[in-house]
Amino acid sequence: MVIRKNMKKNYALISVYDKSNLKYLCNNLEKNNYKFISTGSTCKKIKSLGFNCIEISKVTKFKEILDGRVKTLNPKIYGSILFKRNNKKHINEFKNLQIPKIDIVVINLYPFKKFLNNKNHEKTIEMIDIGGTSLLRASSKNYKYVTTISNTYEYKLLIQNLKINKGFTDLNFRKEMATSAFKNTAEYDKLIYEWMQLKKQSNKKKKLRYGENPNQKSFILNSTSSSIFDYQISGKEIGYNNIIDVDSGIKCLKEFTKPTCIIIKHNNPCGVASSNNINLAFKRAYESDSKSAFGGVVLLNRKIDESFSNFISKFFFEVIVAPSFEKKAVKALSQKKKLILLKLGNISLKKQESRSTLFGTIYQNIDNSKINRSFCKLVAHKKVSVSSMNDIIFGIKIVKHLKSNAIVLAANEQTVGIGNGQTNRVGALEIAIKGLNKNFKNKKFICASDGFFPFTDSLNLLKKNKCKIVATPSGSINDQENIMYANKKKISLYFIKNRLFKH
Questions:
Q1: Considering only 121-125, 245-249, 376-380, which range has the smallest mean pLDDT?
Q2: I want to staple 462 with a disulfide (CB 3.0 to 4.6 A). Which of 7, 365, 443, 467 is the partner?
Q3: Pairing outcome for strands 469-473 and 492-496
Q4: How would residue 389 be classed by pLDDT, with cut points 50, 70 and 90?
Q5: How far is residue 495's CA from residue 100's CA, in Å, rounded to a whole number?
Q6: Where do the domains of the chain lie?
Q7: Distance, CA of 359 to CA of 41 (rounded, Å)
């Protein structure tokens, strides 16, 4: 057991918010020959209890300022607490300060926790203790020589240890109390951090009309300095489903550089087309599945002019998104009071996404792989033409953004059949072919799949519907059988670089 040697008079610095048991503490410290240094209200309380006490401003020669926000933050106080009692240089520097030697620091912090739910933000801010935590950390750091008391229930432990060691404390006790103090300050800072995070979120929090359904409450927390509402130039209040649809559409639209139109319905593209101009791209995307397009979200990667606005206003859509609008176009489209117009330019894609589950939030890196010719590898039959390869790339870009299982049938950079969200791939293919035969019968097309074909039945179905070009990920135990079947039936089969599931 290590016991410190007496270095002249002993002082305890006491600064407490909770003044309970203060008489018990001071009475026993005085019996052990300790004198008191204290801050404003604590000093008054100690004096009112009948003890002598030196106010800290008399030691520092510096009065409290800023309504008591600054009172203990002074080099004389920290010099007294932090100097090493066995270091000659420290001892000499301390003597030059001409202040009492502080051997015990008793602090309890402002009760920040009690003010967490206080509606007055300023009152809660004022309960963030600065000087107290600093004193606790300083004295705890120098626990070899200084005793730190950070809880009222530790008063009794302190007095017991002083009694055992004839007015001093032992090293083991000082270390134990320092550990307790660091735990308290860590928990205190964590509370402040969590509160600040909630305040930060509440500043970014916006209530939405409702969630996926009218009986569900919802809100959005903006993750960037700009929110989707900053981009709105006309229309009704943006809703939960609108945000999800726009998000999905932008991610898909980012795949394209040519003038392209994507129509989103229930978080999935239902019609997509690329062309030489945006007007034609829209017409072809709409023709892909005009029934599903009704009430959908239209996203374009080119400016909307007045002529195009007059044409598109004939249709019913929930939202129209474009990088820019001519003034006359805005005027024309704004006549539809409920139609939401969003002027969205170059929105940056994130590198990571998350999803909330019953077991916690899960994260994954976003697949931002560039889809081009090098993304595809010919494994059966013959190489296709440039235009067919363009259709393959076009189809893969779209199938990547459909709910699995997903199939895209495309011709001349236009979707002619889409099947998605099915529990088996053949089911998705059958839906896509049904759409094809209804609107684009006898049209040559390519097929893109987001996952591998586990059997040859999908290729067989495509062959029956005169499809001669297929792009799919590899990974099935029957890959070789599919390759053999494609060669036999003269189907150009391409394996793509990655699986593109989207659950």
A1: 121-125
A2: 467
A3: parallel
A4: very high
A5: 81
A6: 10-199, 229-343, 368-496
A7: 49
Provide the 10 A C-beta neighbour count for residue 346. Answer: 6
Choice between 427 and 116, residue whose per-residue pLDDT is larger: 427
Q: Please, are residues 333 and 309 in contact by the beta-carbon 8 Å criterion?
A: yes
Phi, psi dihedral angles at 374 (to 5 degrees): -70, -10
Find tokens 């023709």 and name the residue. 287
Pick from 459, 481, 463, 489: nearest CA to 472? 459
Residue 3 has pLDDT above 60, yes or no: no
What CATH number matches the domain at 10-199, 3.40.50.1380, 3.40.190.10, 3.30.70.20, 3.30.9.10? 3.40.50.1380
pLDDT tens for residues 296-340? 999 999 999 999 999 999 999 999 999 999 999 999 999 999 999
- What's the pLDDT score for residue 94? 76
The amino acid occupying position 324 is S
- The torsion of the CA quartet 132, 138, 140, 146, rounded to 10 degrees, works out to -100
220, 268, 316 from 240: Cα distances, Å = 8, 15, 19
How many Å from the N-terminal Cα to the C-terminal Cα in the chain?
A: 64
Name the nearest CA neighbour of 435 among 463, 411, 460: 411
The 10s digit of each residue's pLDDT in 106-129 is: 988 888 777 767 667 777 777 777
The H or E element containing residue 340 is strand 340-343
CA-to-CA distance for 377 and 19, rounded, in angstroms?
A: 77
Model confidence band, residue 346 (pLDDT cutoffs 50, 70, 90):
confident
β-strands 360-365, 205-207 pairing: unpaired
368-496: CATH topology:
Cytidine Deaminase; domain 2 (3.40.140)
Tokens linked to 309: 């606005």
Q: Evaluate whether 229-343 and 368-496 have a shared fold.
A: yes
For the four alpha carbons of 325, 327, 331 and 337, in that order, the dihedral sign comes to positive
At 187, the amino acid letter reads E
Handedness of CA 196, 199, 203, 205 (dihedral sign): positive
Of the options 3.40.1180.10, 1.10.10.10, 3.30.420.110, 3.40.140.20, the CATH number for the domain spanning 229-343: 3.40.140.20
Beta-carbon contacts of 395 under 8 Å, excluding residues fewer than 6 positions away, are 408, 409, 410, 415, 446, 447, 448, 471
Average pLDDT over residues 36-46: 88
The pLDDT value recorded for residue 1 is: 33
pTM for this prediction? 0.65
What is the DSSP secondary-structure string of 431-453? Answer: HHHHHHHHHSTT---EEEESS--
- For 375-402, the three-class secondary structure string (H helix, E strand, C coil) is HEEEEECCCCCHHHHHHHHHHHHHHCCC
